[in-house]
Predict the 3D structure of the following.
Amino acid sequence: MVRRVYHVIRNGRDGWKGVMENSGHAPVTGIHKQDVIKRTVAMAKCHSRCSVIIHKADGSIQEEQNFPRSASKS
């Protein structure tokens, strides 16, 4: 089964977006990073295998969350 991957990245200078990897499609956008993370994670939990990679403002990776939790790299 294919794992869906979403990235939470800067959206210009004043916002954030949740983008599906390799598609450019941004189903989640907003001003506040925490709000975009929360909504992107909620969307990811609807899929059987999904990752959310959260980036810092400079583009580097801050954190990766895997769903379901049993798929985590712990």
Remarks:
- The chain has a mean pLDDT of 89.
- The beta strands are 4-10, 16-20, 28-30, 50-55, 61-67.
- The longest strand covers residues 4-10.
